[in-house]
Amino acid sequence: MKKIFIDGSAGTTGLRILERLKERTDVELIIPEEKDRKDTEKRRFFLNEADVALLCLPDAAAIEAADLVENKNTVIIDTSTAHRTSSGWTYGFPELTGCREKIKNSKRISNPGCHASGFIALVSPLTESGIIGKDALLSAYSVTGYSGGGKKMIADYEIGETENLLSPRAYGLTQTHKHLPEMQKYCGLETPPVFCPIVSSYYSGMQVVVPLHKEDINGKADDIKALYKSYYDGKVIKYSESPDENGFIRSDALSGSDKMQISVLGNGDRILLVSLFDNLGKGASGAAIQNLNIVLGTDEYKGLNLD
Asked: Are 208 and 136 in contact (CB under 8 A)?
C-alpha cells in the first residue's frame, strides 16, 4: 500500500484532498501530530517516507518542501504556483496531448491553477491544431467563488463585514496574475492573454470565457466544436452543446463536481468559448486526486465526483 503525505493539510486544498483520501482503502495516509505539522525536520522525515507527497502550501514553502525531498523514489505533486512552468516538472493536465504518459512517469508534477485550467482547456487544442495561431492576441475573463482566495478570503466573506463584498470584484488589474505564465506556456502563445479574473459572493464554482472574432480563427465555430468533441474523450472534460439556462450560465453550476464542461457559444461572427467547473474540483483538489491516481497506476477517476 502506497504511503501518502499531505504537506499543508490545514489549507483549503489540503483539507479537501485529505477528506477524499481518508475514505480510501488503497492508500496509507501519513498524518503528523499537530505539534509536528510545522517542524521542518519532522516534515523532512514525512516527505521522504512517503511514496507520494502532495504539497498544499504557499509558493515559498512549497519550494522549501521540494528541496527537503532526498528520496529519489518520492513523487511530489505540488498544488502551488511555484513549479508550474519550471524545468524538470511535468504539468499535471492529463487531458492535454502527451501529458497523461508524462505524469505517469514523472517524479515532479505541478497541479494546474484554477483559472489557468479553464483557459488552457479552451485554447490549447486550438493552437495545437492551428485553428488559432500562436501569435494570437487573446483575452479572457473568469468568474470564481470566494473559496479560491483561501482561508483569509473565505473568512472575509463568511465572517467579516460583507456589505462591500456583495458585488463581484475584478482583480489582477496590473496584468501580473500568477496564472498567466502557465496560460501562455501550455497554450504555446507568443503573448500572454489580457486576463480579467473576478471574484463573487458564492463559495465555489468557476466560469472562464475566451471571446473570439471570426477573423481570429482558421475555420469556423463548427470546426472548434468538432475539435473539442474529439479531443476530450475522457470522463472529466466534456463538450456541452447548450450549457445555458434560459440565456444565462451560472458560474457555480458545477460546484462540488470534478467535471469540466466546455462549450462554443455566440454566433458565426463573434464566438464565446466557455469552460465551467469547480475551482476546488478540477481547479484544485480534484485535479490533484486525478494526478495521484495516474501516478499510483489505479483508475484515473477513482474518488472523483463525476455525476
From this structure: no
Cβ atoms 46, 29 nearer than 8 A: no
Which of the following is catalytic: 99, 114, 187, 196?
114
Pairwise CA distance, residues 26 & 19, whole Å = 14
Neighbours of 39 (CB within 10 A): 13
Contact criterion met (CB below 8 Å) for 124 and 186:
yes
Task: Tell me which residue has cell 501519513.
Answer: 30
Q: What does the pLDDT read at residue 39?
A: 83
Annotated catalytic, 114? yes
DSSP 4-30: EEEETTTSHHHHHHHHHHHT-SSEEEE
pTM above 0.90, yes or no: yes
Which H or E run contains 91?
A: strand 90-91
Asked if 91 contacts 44 with a C-beta cutoff of 8 angstroms, the reply is no
SS3 content of the chain, % helix, strand, coil (to 5): 35, 20, 45
- Domains along the chain? 2-112+283-296 (3.40.50.720), 114-279 (3.30.360.10)
- Between CA 299 and CA 286 the distance in angstroms is 14
d(C-alpha 104, C-alpha 86), whole Å: 18
Average pLDDT by stretches of 10, the chain with 307 residues: 94 94 96 84 96 97 97 98 98 98 98 98 98 98 94 87 83 96 98 97 97 97 98 96 88 97 96 98 98 98 95
Amino acid at 192: P
Alpha carbon distance 61, 53 (integer Å): 14
Ramachandran category for residue 209: left, alpha or beta (phi over 0 → left; psi -120 to 50 → alpha):
beta
Q: Which three cell numbers stand for residue 43?
A: 516534515
**Residue at 211: amino acid letter:** P
